[in-house]
Specification:
The structure is a single chain. The protein has 274 residues and is α/β, with parallel strands linked by helices. The protein is 39% helix and 19% strand. The chain has one domain: Vaccinia Virus protein VP39 (Rossmann fold, 3-Layer(aba) Sandwich), CATH 3.40.50.
């Protein structure tokens, strides 16, 4: 009886492992397929930490992070068991002030944009350093499939526009409190103190939450309102994340300011390739 039970438990665990491993294999395969199709030449990866993107032949990357490895290890003790990428540039990944304009064939930003306090400003900076025809390879967590963000509200387009136009300082404290409440689930009485400590540390949280649809809405609005010179050429939902591939175009004519409306993205379907 006991032997039969052990066999049943082992079979259940093996089945679970097969599902998990298959999911992980697909996740890696999708990333590699898109990298192989769109990345070539000399580029940057921003905020790679312990998970740099595997590059295809013909693609070479330098790495950017906001701290050196020693400071990154102090800031992220949860990554102690992993090898971290040594940055070639220590710079603010939202601004890339040390990177010349029109100098890169590609920029990789995987699981960074949700950490940006001004995502629209970050996209404008990433586009600035790309050569015309260069590629932005961006992955971000889908709020609905991410433990940290599942219980949080999706960041509205109005909020993202306000953080860009007025500066993110006005919403910064609220973001830390929301993260403390819903992501790490501190009891109500301890939220103010814990959130204040994270903010004082300048700890990198998910300031904003997205789905593929809301992210594309932000990109389209940034193109119309601020001249973001990026055109989406491929999208993919990939397990807990979505991936957007965008190519830098010629300068965009900025539209006349108008009331903020979320664009119709019915055509932005999963797996679309232009």
């Amino acid at each position: 009886m006991r032997t039969a039970l052990r066999r049943k438990v082992r079979r259940a665990k093996d089945a679970t492992r097969r599902v998990v491993f298959a999911s992980e294999r697909r996740h890696v395969a999708v990333r590699r397929h898109l990298a192989g199709r769109y990345l070539k030449g000399d580029g940057l990866e921003v905020g790679a930490l312990h998970l740099p993107l595997a590059l295809p032949r013909g693609a070479r990357a330098r790495y950017v992070d906001r701290m050196n490895v020693a400071d990154l290890r102090a800031h992220y003790p949860e990554l102690d068991e992993y090898e971290l990428v040594t940055p070639d540039f220590v710079d603010d990944g939202e601004a890339l002030t040390s990177v010349p304009s029109d100098s890169m064939d590609f920029v990789i930003v995987n699981h960074l944009i949700e950490h940006c306090q001004d995502p629209i400003g970050a996209l404008l900076s990433h586009a600035r350093v790309l050569r015309e025809g260069g590629v932005l390879y961006l992955a971000a967590p889908d709020r609905r499939r991410t433990d940290f963000d599942r219980e949080r509200e999706e960041t509205s387009l109005e909020h993202l526009l306000r953080d860009h136009e007025e500066g993110p300082e006005g919403s910064r404290t609220k973001h830390y409190e929301e993260w403390t409440r819903f992501a790490i689930k501190v009891a109500d009485a301890g939220i103010p103190e814990h959130a204040a400590a994270l903010e004082q540390q300048d700890y990198s949280i998910h300031f904003h939450t997205f789905t593929l649809t809301s992210f594309l809405a932000m990109m389209l609005r940034a193109r119309e309102a601020y001249g973001l010179p990026l055109e989406v050429v491929a999208t993919e939902n990939n397990n807990h994340e979505f991936i957007v591939i965008a190519r830098k175009t010629a300068d965009v004519v900025v539209a006349v300011p108008q009331a903020v409306q979320v664009p119709d993205l019915a055509l932005a379907t999963n797996g679309h390739v232009a």
